[in-house]
Design a protein that fits this description.
FAD/NAD(P)-binding domain; Enolase-like, domain 1; alpha/beta; seven-stranded mixed beta sheet; 510 residues; globular; 33% helix; 16 helices; 3 domains
């Protein structure tokens, strides 16, 4: 199996696309530069948080060293956002062909899905994006890029590939990885994670997915649309247990239409080798026992921060199994060392890591006091339909003693959604009771991830539903539904007393 310099670097299959990927993000034969006498900033980890820290600091004139032991671009480029969205897009195309008859399009019988070609497309597109995160690009920015495992040797220096780098400030952006949950027999079988699933070249006939969180749901639906028989196993009831219950119910209905079989409230889950590379899965779901044999198993639960082998003790940096401990300014217990991204954040999203890195730049180089607690962070699960959220859920508002009013608009009431045939969704906005101040929102729609940004903008800049109602939206668009939520708020301001006054005024003016 092809390997690069690091024992942990395995990229499969070793085709032209993956060779191009590796040439950008872990170039064979790369020679580390001679270290500077001292750096303004040393960054450990070249995922999103590390890349943004390094590029931003270098652009402001800082002398920066960037250390990466594996692949530049981190999880997002190599095993997360980029490959998953390419796969999801191919699965949506397959579903569009399947459902084309609803729009009067007659598709000839015998249309097949070429899974290998869809995965090759993903690898080709990933390789085309890789130059943005490449060793060359960051070297050209004036950053000293070191390939190797970085380890703190004391409070102000890091060792990598036999060289010692002295720093004034440092950032730990080493990310997180898939972690194996405690499941009986898991250590006896071969299984996939988000880090290995994108190496597949053949479509599994039957695949079991453990975990109905965002990653599990996205890939479950995609495999089902490609034509796999998919079993989705979840210990809790339903799917996406942290999401709005109505939103999760809509997605579950859509996934079941795609052929997904959900085994929720799963108990006594056991795994064993069934021979021939197959896996036997036994589980109890809603009082019924299941004994299933699958040819692939995807484990989509559990993440572990990469806190090992960093020499955090030598640097005086405190950490737990949940990650590096930071304050609101993302400062660790060593005041000259900060952390950003998945290694310290409960919000494990690329966009969250990006904005945490921006906070770190301000706080490390310019005596800033920016706090991560001030960030308004949206997120989206890229299923069909998508589920996007920002701010508080209803139960969280109640737990925090915040009285709210809730406005919901169903997509079946929106003209563009009706015309597109995407009426199974809604927009739900929570505001502080008696006001238009937004405290949270959930959107279920085909393009919910795009729509949520308008709500996020309003929350970030303290705009309310009244201002949204005053904003002209093009007709017909799905985004118009958000303006309609604003209209719904405005109607609540027309109390019976106010209406009676207006009636009298109108009568007087006739």
């Amino acid at each position: 199996m092809p390997k690069a310099d690091s024992d942990q670097l395995i990229v499969e299959p070793w085709d032209l696309h993956n060779q191009q990927l590796v040439s950008h993000v872990h170039p064979p034969g790369w020679k580390n530069p001679r270290p500077a006498s001292r750096y303004n900033l040393v960054v450990i980890g070249a995922g999103t948080a590390g890349l943004v820290c390094a590029a931003g600091a270098a652009g402001l004139g800082a002398k920066v060293a960037l250390i990466e032991r594996h692949l530049m671009g981190g999880d997002c480029l190599n095993a997360g956002c980029v490959p998953s969205k390419a796969v999801i897009r191919a699965a949506r195309a397959a579903a569009a062909v399947r459902d084309a008859g609803e729009f009067g399009v007659r598709v000839p019988e015998g249309v097949t899905m070429d899974f290998g070609e869809a995965m090759a497309r993903m690898r080709r597109l990933r390789a085309s994006i890789a130059p943005h995160d490449s060793v060359k690009r960051f070297s050209d920015l004036g950053i000293d890029v070191f390939i190797g495992e970085g380890r703190f040797v004391d409070a102000h220096s890091v060792e990598v590939a036999g060289e010692r780098l002295a720093f004034k400030k440092a950032v730990i952006a080493a990310g997180a990885r898939a972690a194996a949950p405690l499941i009986q027999g898991l250590d006896t079988v071969s299984y996939l994670t988000n880090e290995t699933v994108f190496s597949l070249t053949e479509l599994p006939r039957r695949i079991a997915v453990i975990g109905a969180g965002p990653i599990g749901c996205e890939l479950t639906q995609s495999f089902a649309r490609f034509g796999s028989e998919v079993l989705l196993v979840e210990t809790l009831h339903g799917i996406l247990p942290k999401e709005d219950g109505d939103a999760s119910a809509i997605l579950l209905e859509s996934m079941q239409k795609d052929g997904v079989k959900l085994l929720c409230c799963g108990k006594e889950l056991k795994l064993s080798n069934a021979g021939g590379g197959n896996i036997r899965l036994t589980v109890e779901s809603h009082g019924k026992g299941y004994d299933e044999v699958v040819d692939q198993l995807l484990v989509a639960v559990g993440r572990a921060p990469n806190v090992e082998h960093l020499g955090l003790e030598e640097a005086g940096v405190a950490y737990t199994r949940k990650g590096v401990q930071v304050n609101d300014r993302l400062q660790t217990t060593n005041p000259d060392i900060y952390a950003a991204g998945d290694i310290c954040s409960p919000y494990q999203f690329t966009h969250a890591a990006d904005f945490m890195a921006r906070i770190v730049i301000r706080n490390t180089l310019f005596f800033g006091r920016s706090g991560v607690g001030a960030l308004i962070i949206p997120w989206c699960t890229y299923t069909e339909p998508e589920i996007a959220h920002v701010g508080l859920y209803e139960n969280q508002a109640l737990d925090q003693g915040i009285d709210i009013d809730t406005f919901t608009r169903e997509l079946r009431e929106v003209d563009r959604s009706i015309l597109e045939g995407h009426t199974n969704g809604f927009v739900r906005v929570h505001v502080r009771k008696g006001t238009d101040k937004i405290v949270g929102a959930t959107i279920v729609a085909t393009n919910a991830g795009d729509l949520i940004s308008e709500i996020t903008l309003a929350m970030t800049h303290n705009l309310g539903l009244a201002q949204i109602a005053d904003t002209i939206h093009p007709y017909p668009t799905q985004a118009e539904v958000i303006r309609q939520i604003g209209d719904a708020y405005n109607r609540t301001r027309l109390t019976p007393f106010a209406k009676s006054l207006f009636s009298r005024l109108m009568a007087w003016r006739r």
